[in-house]
Write a structure and sequence with these properties.
The complex is a heterodimer of chains A (about 110) and B (about 575). Chain A is an alpha+beta fold and about 110 residues long. In chain B, strand 1, helix 2 and strand 2 form a beta-alpha-beta unit. Helix content of chain B is about 35%, strand content about 15%. Chain B is built from 21 helices and 21 strands. By secondary structure, chain B is of the alpha/beta class. The longest helix of chain B is centred in the first third of the chain and has 15 residues. The chains are: A alpha+beta (about 110), B alpha/beta (about 575). Chains A and B meet through helix 1 and helix 3 of A and strand 5 of B. The structure holds thiamine diphosphate and magnesium ion. The site of thiamine diphosphate has 19 residues of chain B, from helix 16 and helix 19.
């Protein structure tokens, strides 16, 4: 097991963060570090905006960085579980991104 | 209420209280939606759940804050584990009181969070139509599940008016469940099918949720594989079909478990390889490739690694596989499966379930629970909706009542909730008043929601309750017999059972007691002849019966107990 980083963008809605953190707890995964920002600069998310045919606006989107100690198999499972949360727009480890339920072989975040 | 009507809701199950009174007043002043007053909020959730399982439509529940909301929790968890679409509206204390430990304040969103697909709090009354639209969309799409809407009392106050319009469609940019599978995944699935000599189709609740009955049947007209169903999937493939193996898993048939263990290809259709199916995952089906059709990414390769993953509505995936396979029929020879079918036939004849039990009407032995189910099957021509509770009676019902259609077998598979059967039967009966609805239960389970007998009287719901009375928490006792040296710790009641006949009568229903094997057939027939009455049939069965086959703990699927002293 090594420390791995996950990046996640989600709707900035009440309760959204609790759902993410709760999922780690519920499935028995441990969080090493957690960082949350409200996104102001959307320039890096142009691809995502285009794919979702949407426009992000100020204070709408949160960006989470989570570090966790897990095996490869577990990592994949965590990604998929996070992707399942309704408020999560995209979740990525170093190699893949789940964007709105679709798996992409690139790191979009 | 207007939004619920615009959503197409016809029926709500609920129980009033302070925080929901504005909504209840609105119910009083309209006549488009029927409200069913239950006797306990758990009953409301199970009834809505039963209604949903039988019809495919979402069940709707309305409860008040605090105890009303927490009483609904078991039913929400039950629906969540079995992916049943449900919308639960809970009243909440007024916005300005939230967080003050006000009277009947519970953080319903927090309490229900791990057991819902999603939840909403209403912060502005104008949002109500949009939230209701979204809630129904989320509950019913993708992998379905329960959604909670928590509404503070001031949001429904009559003076809190706004311009009402109901949205045409819900669009959530962060939610996009897969619908159409990708062709390259389909191609890989078809390749695997073409080379398989020992395929098994393993279909579960997801196939029912996707209404994939016809597509599954049509695909297998080509493949001609043996088919097994999970406890949740019973009915998606006709039990009377000659390729049907019966249920698999913990109490699955010998032939179903043997076929899975020895298969070279498992086609999983809306099933999730849970621990009641796989036994020890590392020993599971050692030679099988797995093609997994599912709508939920996180269910695939969670426990058993899939060689081919097909994401999408399984109905669509099955159809596409069939169309693609049809183009390659030249290279497919269904007769190559003959040795496999012969093998399965042999397994069936070795240790298949004994369907002759019920023909013996002598009093040389006590009533057998399996025979009760077989009689009920015969009397109802296999056409009834059967709800069940949890325990041995549930497994006997699953094994011996043969379902030829989906949505007829209504039981709590994932959570295993005792108390589910009676309220679920109410939901089914309200949806299909002309059909026969039977609740096969045990004397333990039925007592967990027995108060709903009163609801059945109020709304005239003539269901038939078949109480398989073994005077014990039979399934617990069976485990104690097998694993704890027969020490029956707290699994019997020391002669404290109520007189169920008097109990049913005091609720205004009919009770019939059966204790002798020779009376079984007559007694059951009499009960089913009373078309317009709820009949509670209390049947005393052999308390020493166990459910077999039963998986040997930590073994592979081929390790089974076949009787008290016989193991594979
Ligand atoms: C609410 C709840 N509590 C406890 C259990 C554990 N449990 C599973 S089966 C069972 C016994 C059920 O007894 P009964 O309804 O009489 O059915 P039987 O097994 O005797 O047919 C128990 C206690 C459960 N499934 N649900
Ligand atoms: Mg019992």
């Amino acid at each position: 097991m090594i420390k791995r980083k996950l990046i996640l963008i989600m709707e900035n809605k009440p309760g959204a963060l609790v759902r993410v953190v709760g999922l780690f707890h519920q499935r028995g995964y441990n969080i090493e570090t957690l960082h949350v920002d409200s996104v102001k600069d959307f320039s890096t998310y142009k691809d995502i905006e285009k794919k979702l045919e949407t426009k992000f606006e100020d204070n709408q989107i949160s960006r989470l960085t989570i570090e966790t100690m897990v095996s490869d198999d577990l990592m994949r499972q965590i990604l998929r579980q996070l992707n399942k949360l309704i408020d999560v727009i995209a979740v990525s480890n170093e190699e893949t991104t789940y964007l709105k339920g679709v798996l992409l072989d690139e790191n979009l975040l | 209420m207007q939004a619920l009507h615009d959503e197409g809701v016809e029926l709500i199950f609920g129980y009033p209280g302070g925080a929901a009174l504005h909504i209840y007043d609105a119910i009083f002043r309209q006549d488009k939606i029927d409200h069913i007053l239950v006797r306990h909020e758990q009953g409301a959730t199970h009834a809505a759940d039963g209604y949903s399982r039988a019809t495919g439509k979402p069940g709707v529940v309305l409860v008040t804050s605090g105890p009303g909301a927490t009483n609904a929790i078991t039913g929400i968890a039950t629906a969540f584990m079995d992916s049943i679409p449900m919308v639960v509206i809970s009243g909440q204390v007024a916005s300005h009181l939230i967080g003050t430990d006000a009277f009947q304040e519970t953080d319903m969103i927090g309490v229900s969070r791990p057991i819902v697909k999603h939840s909403y709090t209403v912060f502005n009354a104008e949002e109500i139509p949009k939230i209701i639209k979204e809630a129904f969309y989320v509950a019913t799409s993708g992998r379905p599940g329960p959604v909670v809407i928590d509404i503070p009392k001031d949001m429904t106050a009559p003076d809190n008016l706004f311009d009402y319009s109901y949205p045409e469609e819900a669009k959530i940019r962060s939610y996009n469940p897969p619908i159409e599978p990708e062709q390259n995944q389909i191609d890989r699935a078809v390749e695997a099918i073409l080379i398989s000599k020992k395929p098994v189709i393993y279909a579960g609740g997801g196939a029912i949720a996707s209404n994939a009955e016809k597509e599954l049947l049509e695909l297998n007209e080509i493949i001609d594989a043996p088919v097994t169903n999970t406890l949740m999937g019973l009915g998606i493939y006709p039990a009377s079909h000659h390729r049907f193996l019966g249920m698999l898993g913990m109490h699955g048939t010998y032939q179903a478990n043997m076929a899975m263990h020895n298969a070279d290809l498992i086609i999983a259709v809306g099933a999730r390889f849970d621990d009641r199916i796989t036994n020890k995952p590392s020993k599971f089906a050692p030679n099988a490739k797995v093609v997994h059709l599912d709508v939920d990414h996180s269910s695939v390769s969670k426990i058993i690694e899939a060689n081919v993953a097909v994401f999408g509505q399984v109905k669509n995936s099955l159809k596409l596989i069939k169309e693609t396979l049809e183009k390659k029929l030249d290279s497919y020879d269904p007769f190559a499966l003959q040795p496999w079918h012969d093998q399965i036939k042999e397994w069936k004849s070795l240790h298949g379930l004994n369907y002759e039990l019920y023909k013996d009407e002598s009093d040389d032995h006590p009533i057998l629970p399996q025979a009760v189910v077989q009689h009920v099957h015969e009397i109802t021509n296999g056409k009834a909706y059967v709800t069940s509770d949890v325990g041995q009676h549930q497994m006997f019902a699953a094994q011996y009542y043969h379902f030829d259609k989906p949505r007829r077998w209504i039981n709590s598979g994932g959570l295993g909730t005792m108390g589910f059967g009676l309220p679920a039967a109410m939901g089914v009966k309200l949806a299909f008043p002309k059909d026969e609805v039977v609740c096969i239960t045990g004397e333990g389970s039925i007592q967990m929601c027995i108060q709903e007998l009163s609801t059945c009287l109020q709304y005239n719901l003539p269901i038939k309750i078949i109480n398989i009375n073994n005077e014990a928490l039979g399934m617990v006792k069976q485990w104690q017999d097998m694993n704890y040296g027969g020490r029956h710790s707290e699994s019997t009641y020391q002669n404290s059972l109520p007189d169920f006949i008097k109990l049913a009568e005091s609720y205004g229903h009919v009770g019939i007691k059966i204790t002798k094997n020779s009376d079984l057939s007559k007694g059951l027939k009499k009960a089913f002849e009373m078309k317009d009455r709820l009949v509670f049939v209390d049947i005393y069965v052999d308390p020493s019966e166990h459910v077999y086959p039963m998986q040997v703990a930590n073994g592979s699927l081929e390790n089974m107990w076949l009787s008290k002293d016989e193991q594979t």
